[in-house]
Amino acid sequence: xxxxxxxxxxxxxxxxxxxxxxxxxxxxxxxxxxxxxxxxxxxxxxxxxxxxxxxxxxxxxxxxxxxxxxxxxxxxxxxxxxxxxxxxxxxxxxxxxxxxxxxxxxxxxxxxxxxxxxxxxxxxxxxxxxxxxxxxxxxxxxxxxxxxxxxxxxxxxxxxxxxxxxxxxxxxxxxxxxxxxxxxxxxxxxxxxxxxxxxxxxxxxxxxxxxxxxxxxxxxxxxxxxxxxxxxxxxxxxxxxxxxxxxxxxxxxxxxxxxxxxxxxxxxxxxxxxxxxxxxxxxxxxxxxxxxxxxxxxxxxxxxxxxxxxxx
Length: 312
Prior knowledge:
The chain is α/β, with parallel strands linked by helices. Helix content is 38%, strand content 14%. The protein contains 11 helices and 11 strands. The chain has helices at residues 28-48, 57-62, 119-132, 159-167, 184-192, 208-215, 226-229, 246-258, 264-277, 280-295, 302-305; strands at residues 6-7, 51-54, 71-73, 91-92, 98-99, 105-112, 137-143, 176-179, 196-199, 220-223, 239-241. The strands form 3 sheets. It has a 6-stranded parallel beta sheet with strand order 8-7-6-9-10-11, sandwiched between helices. The protein has a 3-stranded parallel beta sheet with strand order 1-2-3. Helix 7 (226-229) links the parallel strand 10 (220-223) and strand 11 (239-241). Helix 6 (208-215) packs across helix 9. 37% of the residues are buried.
């Protein structure tokens, strides 16, 4: 975007009360002070901006009312030509496991394992899920890294280590496979070959991984939180569960593993959602170019002058 003219993606942050928020009330004063300082910087930028762009309606709704007339909802877009379901294949994992499609597999992916993306809920759910689905395997993809968005575990270290200490003794690790962050193409192969992909998030930025999993026709089992509802409707193009209801999550996943084919219509609808609302070439790039042209006062001329490769 044009420096000083438009904020290309909103970073405005708010505190969102949600079930279980009491679990992380320690150090909240420090967090509130940091939050106010960050928002002050954004507010200064928004005052000068001609246009403010948010990728989803949830994020747009967080921006203060005084700035709303400047807000446009335009997602960065998903390359649906490149990101699509791949043919069934055998998954050979770095730990030596070979998953050939004879047993159900679920995936959980996050850039870094942290509560913001539900690592604590997911791992507390795992013992019950593995009990209900005795042949299922689990792929946990992400970095075991302390450099997270939110608060670290009490006593330091990483959240994966903290959760292993809490529930690791009740998890059958022969069926749970910890994988590092994968190259894009490999991640899409995983999305295409699992019975379900689990996506959990606090009220925060919607991950590209959710939309990419949907583009690969993965059955998404996700938290019923505001960012997710921008893309997923329960029973239509995915399945939603209460963020903190581990029993419900385990049961829903076990039901999927028992009869994956039953949910094929939801898989197809998930990709169609991405095509209809998040397709980069057909929807998002044209919207961005139109906004840039309008901001620059050259509607209809600037769009043809900007190579689309600059937006990739």
